[in-house]
Amino acid sequence: MKASILLSLLFLVPVLVRAQAVRVGIRAGVNVASADQKSIDQIKRVLSLIGSDVTLKPVTGYHAGVVLNVGGPKFSLQPEFLYSQYGARFDGGANSVELKTNVIEVPILAKYALGNRDTRFFVNAGPFFDYALNGKLTLDFSGRRLIQDVTFDKTSDRIAYGLAGGVGLTRPLGRGNVLLEARYSYSLRSKVPQLGNTNINASLGMLSIGYILPAGR
């Protein structure tokens, strides 16, 4: 069901491209990821050794990829194709669990921009879809460390999705524009088979720099 929605949205892109201005670019930056209280409760049930007093700590990573922006100067649609890292750390004193996952991420964002020719500000929002490539699970229990590869027995376990939104600005440079953006995303589904198929609701902050320019000029 979710895969069919993603394919439908992607098939809309060529239609929009024929009717609107097209811009292409790249973006990259740092990720700071964590999870929510619901994820802590699930981790406690699955790993009783971790103890009752569990706190969340952020996990850092990075992202990089390509951007396609289709539309006018104010309203546009922006699909992206990114390689991204995120995860979460659950700290229970002497015991802890840290998850890091590498994914292909496809946000499909509606974007609104305003400003003058020198500086334009924008906001964007929309769904994103992840396809997990691999990951690492690090468990520390009473001074002993166990590191496992995150494996996925089913294709459906690799698929995650959620909502994202960001704010930023662009400034002209050469033929195109430099962009700076801060974005927040929240995963509504992200399964971890090694943790009893626990659903980790990851929250991710992204800080990006990029460059975008008109296509075909």
Salient structural properties:
single chain, about 220 residues, mainly beta, Porin, 8-stranded antiparallel β-barrel, two-stranded antiparallel ribbon, 12 strands
Number of strands: 12
Second-tier CATH architecture: Beta Barrel
What is the overall pLDDT average? 83
Number of separate structural domains:
1
Multimeric state of these chains? single chain
Proportion of residues in extended strands: over 45%
- Number of helices in the DSSP assignment: 3
Helical residue percent? 10-25%
Following the backbone from N to C, one meets helices and strands in this order, namely: HEHEEEEEEHEEEEE
Q: How is the biggest beta sheet arranged?
A: 8 strands, antiparallel, barrel
What distance lies between the first and last C-alpha atoms, to the nearest angstrom? 38 Å
- The shape is elongated
Please identify the top-level CATH class: Mainly Beta
Main sheet strand line-up: 1-3-4-5-6-8-9-12
The Cα radius of gyration reads 19 Å
- CATH T-level topology: Porin
Low-confidence sequence ranges:
none
